[in-house]
Amino acid sequence: MESRHKRREIRLRPLPNIAGMFLLAYCVLGRGDVRSGLPTGRGTYALYGATSGSIVETVAEPSVECLLPQGAKSPAQIEDESVPTSAALTQERTVWIAKLLREIGKIKPGMRRKDLLKVFTTEGGLSNRFQRTYVQIECPYIKVDVRFKAANDEHDVLREDPEDVIETISRPYLAWSVADQRREKR
Question: Cα separation of 173 and 171, whole Å?
Fold first, then answer.
């Protein structure tokens, strides 16, 4: 069943007002919030009704974002808060990351592209046969940058050969997926 109300999402970049303060507005599904305050300090949130334009609620910016009213949170904040936490889950995640780091550590210069592809997959973005960013198969936020030496036909810069030799592989690092750059902006 389709809703009669269209989803509205409007984001305004911080803009200086005449007092040197900054305003940030965010509206979703007929409700909005406006934060005012210095860009480096704490501010105040005012939650406005979209139809009446009147203030529904005003709160001082808490030191912990999870204390904000639900309507004043960004989608990324809501998603972050939905991740379950416990001592057991922390231990499980730590063991999983250790497993991935051991697998990644087995990939060494001198190995072939086909060996790398057992642990990593390609990521979008600019690349060629001789250099590319790869993402770990189980977690696309774990990445490495790899340089290759052509196994044959080194003049063809586009055709990646499974026999190309790894010259260098970076340490693993964390970064948003190329398609997920929007999530960085909170």
Answer: 6
> Is 162 in contact with 114 (CB distance < 8 Å)?
yes
pLDDT digits (tens, 9 = 90+) for 114-171: 999 999 999 888 889 999 999 999 999 999 999 999 998 888 888 899 999 999 999 9
Task: Please write down the long-range contacts of 142-145, taking CB distance under 8 Å and 24 or more positions apart.
Answer: 142/100, 142/104, 142/172, 142/173, 142/174, 143/172, 143/173, 143/174, 143/175, 144/104, 144/107, 144/120, 144/169, 144/170, 144/171, 144/172, 144/173, 145/169, 145/170
Nearest C-alpha neighbor of 46 from the set 58, 37, 29: 58
Distance CA 91, CA 83 (A): 15
Backbone angles phi, psi at 100, to 5 degrees: -65, -40
Quote the tokens at residue 179: 């398609």
